[in-house]
Structure formats: structure tokens, C-alpha cells
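Good morning C.,

I know you're traveling, so I'll keep this short. The sequence:
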Amino acid sequence: MNINRLSIGGGIIGLMLGVVLPVGMGAADSNSNWIIKPHLFESLTEPPCSYVSTENRKGFVKPDDKVIAWLRGPHNGGTIPLRHFLAGPRIINDTYGLFFYDPEGGYVASYQKDYGYEFYGWRDGVMLVRDKEGTIWSALSGRALDGPGKGQQLKRVPSAPTTWGHWLMLHPESTAYNLFEGDTYSEVKLPAVDHWQVRATARTAEITEDLVIGVEGDGSTRAYPLPLREERVCYNDVIDDMPVTVFWYGPTQSGVAWKRTIDGKLLTFRADTISPETAPFVDNETNSRWTLAGRAVDGPMRGTELEWISSIQCRDDAWKAEYPETSWFKPDTQP
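The C-alpha cells, ready to paste straight into the viewer:
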């Protein structure tokens, strides 16, 4: 078995070649590269909550600060500024969810609430976490790779990356963590640590800065390349007999995937150049306007919410490493 396990310490990367595997690791992972560095980052647990409008008045978060927003739940969801809460600890264990920030992979993964998770290292350049029972998980896919829970799957919660200013415009009433007087949490420049060489060593695939929305269907996965230079784009597709739509909003570099059926009615979406930035997407069937968060705010469908699809926005090389058998969407094949 060609297993490369790397240990990072004192600024030096030590490479050990051999057959040493994490306990229980099977032949399916025989070509994986593991970088083991537990305790490199210290997790954050249950930071006190507030509201977006309240925290905005304090002036600590800038309008263009990157955030991860959870899109459903009480108060129309909530948001976490990466620079203030995730860039340092990389992991938040909280009532509202379990959040893993992997700047090298270009994503924040959001899962149902749980506790006791800590940073563990990387596998093929994708972040690993370990829970309190000793199970090792992929932060990107939420799959348990090793340990007592091997084979289990974390369940994602609806989420999307955006900016503080855009989310404030959509949902000032939503939840945010309390910044108090601005000195409780240490701000960390994005990304927190430059592991570019680590990524290059750990991944055999070509490293790029291109982004995708990776969608997990009923038995297969599909990557939707995101048009980074376009202001607003909408894709319509079908995966595993499930009609889906992908919204892309360029000014905030935000993508999110939704089911495009409501009460049995099939909708086809388009990006509308004359619609306001609060609702840049329109369905062809009713001409209702929809927000990035999947809510109709104008037209016959007003007040309706789309159902989120298990998916994540990340760098395409991270998705390839985690899902080598994935299919790739081509815009000219839209139904």
C-alpha cells in the first residue's frame, strides 16, 4: 500500500512512507495521503447568540466580510462571520449546527448540531475532524472514515456562503453570534494558515481556485462549475430523477442548490438581470422573484420556500478528491 502520512510540527513537514494506516482503514483508502495534526486548532463551543441587526450596529463586521449562513430555522436562519468565529478555531460545536471551515478546500460544511469535534488533519488535502468517541470524519462529505463510527454519515443543514452585507439586507432579524465589545474573539485573516504546500503534497489532482456546487443525489453526485465572473446565473437540471436548480450570485460569490418542485409543480428558473439584488432569480411558470435563500418575495409564489438539496460550495479539486466518480454538469444540457 502506498500510504503517505505526514506530520506537521515546528514549521517542518516530515514525510513517512510505509504501510501504517489509521486503525480500521481498509483497502479502499490504500492510495490516500493522510496528514495527521490533532490540536492544531482549538474548537469553539456554543458562543452566545444575538441578532444580525444588533451585531451590525457595533460596527465590528464589514459589509464585505465572508460569512456562512444557515438558511432555515428560527428567525429565518442565521450567519457566522468567518474572520471572527471560524478562521481561528476552524470548528464550531453549537446548538444551531456543527460547522467545519476548510479554507484550503474553499468551503464551510454545516451539519446538524453535535458536540465534541476537533481538528484532526487532512486526507488528500481535505480536512479531517475527530469526535469525542475517536471517530475520524471527512469535513467535506461528513462521512466517518475510521474509528467506532466508521461508515456513518453526518446530515447537512441548509447553508450557503455569502457576505455580511447581503445577509443583513435579506434577514436582519436572523441569528448571529454576540461580538460583545469586540475583544472576546480574535479576528484572523482569511485563510487562517497558508497550507498551500500541504495541499500540493497531499493531493494528486491538479490544484485550482475554481468553485463548484457539489450536489449529493440519491445514489450519485454531480458538480456544477460556478461562473465566477458572471453576476447572476441559474442552472436547471435533473439528478437521480430529482429536478434541481442552482443559483449563483457573483457579487457575493454565493451558490446554492434547491429542488425545483413545489407541491408537485415543476418550476424552471432563470437569472433575471432587471430584478433587484434581493431577489435576482425568477421562475418561468409564475414570474415570481426568489432570493438566494430560496424564498419567493414577489409574485404568486410569495411566501413560498424552496426545499434545499444536500450540497456544498467548494473548490473543484477538493470535490474531485472526495468524489472521484462524480459527474459534471454542462450548461448546454439544461432541460
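Safe travels,
E.
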